[in-house]
Every structure is written in structure tokens, then in C-alpha cells.
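Figure 6 in text form: structure in, sequence out.
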């Protein structure tokens, strides 16, 4: 298999979890590859919408976005309505004009904390990018360079506190591991029995060429 089409097909078979929407979270440590994987999966899902939690976090509070997510996104989607959320501008340090998020058959939520306790009742599936904290953070620091070193110091401390209090990996339905080419998809520790959460063997998945 040379793309993510099988994964996409499986997600389409899940029961809706938030109104008519199958809400899929892609969680993991900062720098673990969530954004790239979510973009590739969204493409395999025929352009499924992706809500990136970097648009909800702010300098003042990295993880205190649950109430805004419920009000601006979860509520409208659960009613089958178009959601509108105000993305945070990290340069201007202010919220920008509202952005639309349609109640598509599958919607991805990508970012650190996407599988947190408050969101899990609304999820059809929780995917965890299975790369350890230290390696993920080192990769993120290399990507962003020394100018953001102080920001990464603040972020990693906050992330460690968050996952200590509200871990996502133990609840993950599937673990996604990046390979030299593509991904490996494994049953997660939180996988439940039943058609909607069955992954019986590992699969190697290459990105679109």
C-alpha cells in the first residue's frame, strides 16, 4: 500500500461521535510529527478539515482552551452546524477573525492535548504519535532554531505538567510510529473491542508519493 487510503476508509466506517461528525484526534508530544501526519491523513480523507490546536492555545495559557473549543467548535458540530473559531495569531498575540469549520463526515483535531479527558467523549478515535517526549522535543527545537529556545523551555515544562495530570497515550485507540518511509499503525493501549475500534495487526503505511 502506498498511501493512507486504508486508514481513511476505516475512519469513514466509524460511528459519528459529535453530531454527524466523526471527530478524530491526533495527539502526541510537541515535535512528534502530528501536523505532518494529520495533513497527509486529511488529504487521504478527500480534504477533511483539520483543526490545529496551535490556533486555540495562547502565550498566556498553552492548555486552557477547552471552554472555547466546546463553545466555538464542539457545540456547533454536535448540532450539525458550521463551527466558527477565532485562531490565535502568535505574532500579533491576539485572536484573528473567525474561521469556519464545516461539519464534514470526518474532522481531525491535531495538537498536544487533542486526546485530553474533556474531549474524549466526543471522539470517534484517538491516535497517538508514538515518539517519546525527549526525542520529540529535541526534534522540535532543531526545527525551530535557537531563537525559540526560551519558548520551548516554557512549553516543555507546561506540556510535562499537562500529560502528568491528563495523559492521552494510555487512552489511545492506535499508536502511529513514523518510519524512514511512511508510518506504522499499531493497536493502542486504550483500544476497545468492537468494529469501531479494531486494529488487529500492525500496518506499514507509506506517505503519498
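Output sequence:
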Amino acid at each position: 500500500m502506498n498511501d493512507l487510503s486504508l486508514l481513511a476508509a476505516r475512519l469513514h466506517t466509524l460511528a459519528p461521535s459529535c453530531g454527524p461528525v466523526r471527530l478524530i484526534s491526533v495527539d502526541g508530544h510537541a515535535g512528534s510529527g502530528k501536523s505532518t501526519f494529520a495533513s497527509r491523513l486529511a488529504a487521504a480523507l478527500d480534504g477533511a478539515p483539520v483543526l490545529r490546536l496551535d490556533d486555540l492555545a495562547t502565550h498566556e495559557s498553552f492548555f486552557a482552551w477547552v471552554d472555547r473549543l466546546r463553545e466555538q467548535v464542539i457545540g456547533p458540530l454536535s448540532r450539525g452546524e458550521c463551527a466558527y473559531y477565532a485562531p490565535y495569531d502568535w505574532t500579533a498575540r491576539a485572536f484573528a477573525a473567525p474561521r469556519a469549520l464545516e461539519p464534514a463526515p470526518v474532522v481531525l483535531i491535531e495538537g498536544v492535548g487533542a486526546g485530553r479527558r474533556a474531549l474524549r467523549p466526543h471522539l470517534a478515535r484517538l491516535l497517538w504519535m508514538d515518539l517519546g517526549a525527549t526525542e520529540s522535543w529535541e526534534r522540535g527545537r532543531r526545527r525551530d532554531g535557537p531563537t525559540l529556545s526560551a519558548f520551548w523551555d516554557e512549553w516543555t515544562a507546561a506540556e510535562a505538567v499537562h500529560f502528568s495530570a491528563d495523559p492521552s497515550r494510555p487512552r489511545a485507540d492506535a499508536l502511529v510510529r513514523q518510519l524512514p518511509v511512511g508510518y506504522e499503525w499499531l493497536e493502542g493501549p486504550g483500544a476497545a473491542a468492537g468494529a469501531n475500534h479494531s486494529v488487529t495487526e500492525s500496518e506499514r503505511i507509506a506517505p503519498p508519493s
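Caption detail: Residues 5-205 form a domain with the Rossmann fold fold (CATH 3.40.50.300).
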